[in-house]
Amino acid sequence: MLGFYLSSGDLGDCWFISAIAAIADVSELRQRVIPDDQHFSKDYCGIFHFRFWQKGTWVDVVVDE
Prior knowledge:
- The structure is a single chain.
- The protein starts with 13 loop residues before the first helix and ends with a strand.
- The radius of gyration is 13 Å and the shape is globular.
- The chain has one domain (14-64).
- The protein is built from two helices and two strands, in the order ααββ.
- A two-stranded antiparallel ribbon has the order 1-2.
- By secondary structure, the protein is of the alpha+beta class.
């Protein structure tokens, strides 16, 4: 479980929140979207890597804080 509650906002983000909730309980999917080699303490450099399924292929996304 994510450990907090997600709620849909005024931006119409209910589909994104539903997808996050769906992968939260399935570790295989969660590891596919959020690689396990990322940590806040060990070798943290201010970015996070995610993978999103888009139009039949995995797309790598890097988010910089």
